[in-house]
């Protein structure tokens, strides 16, 4: 698992990610609870039509609960880990900007 060690390094940005965190009836791959950001690392099974529909419904419910969902494929993580981390950092920055305007 290449993503987890990188997410643990983001503690310096004020985000403590947890693995396999439960929310509602779901188990999230990774979650930053303080900023309500979810990272999903999807395998090939998530490319199947039925799984895509289920993931979309799940994401909609989690968004309704106030979470932001970022999905990456195993290929994204394997081939562009730096790009994945940049997107996570951008999401963390967006949350920080919103909180800073209150």
Annotation keywords:
47% helix; four-stranded mixed beta sheet; alpha+beta; Endonuclease, Chain A; 102 residues
Describe this structure in words.
It is a single chain. The chain has 102 residues and is α+β, with helices and mostly antiparallel strands. 18% of the residues are buried. The radius of gyration is 13 Å and the shape is globular. The N and C termini lie far apart (37 Å). A four-stranded mixed sheet has the order 1-2-3-4, with helices on both faces. It has one domain: VSR Endonuclease (Endonuclease, Chain A), CATH 3.40.960. The C terminus is likely disordered. The longest helix has 20 residues.
Proportion of helical residues: 40-55%
State the CATH topology.
Endonuclease, Chain A
Distance between the termini: 37 Å
Poorly predicted tracts of residues: 98-102
Question: How would the blueprint of this fold be written?
Answer:
Layout: H1 3-8, E1 17-23, E2 26-32, E3 37-42, H2 49-64, E4 68-73, H3 74-79, H4 81-100
Parallel strand pairs: 3-4
Antiparallel strand pairs: 1-2, 2-3
Précis, in short:
With 102 residues, this protein is of the alpha+beta class.
């Amino acid at each position: 698992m290449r993503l987890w060690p990188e997410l643990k390094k983001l503690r310096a940005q004020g985000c403590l990610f947890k693995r396999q965190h439960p929310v509602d009836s779901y188990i999230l791959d990774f979650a930053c609870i303080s900023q309500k950001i979810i990272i999903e690392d999807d395998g090939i099974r998530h490319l199947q039509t039925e799984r895509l529909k289920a993931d979309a419904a799940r994401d909609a419910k989690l968004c309704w609960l106030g979470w932001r969902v970022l999905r990456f494929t195993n290929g994204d993580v394997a081939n562009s880990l730096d790009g994945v981390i940049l997107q996570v950092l951008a999401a963390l920055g967006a949350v920080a900007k919103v909180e800073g305007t209150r």
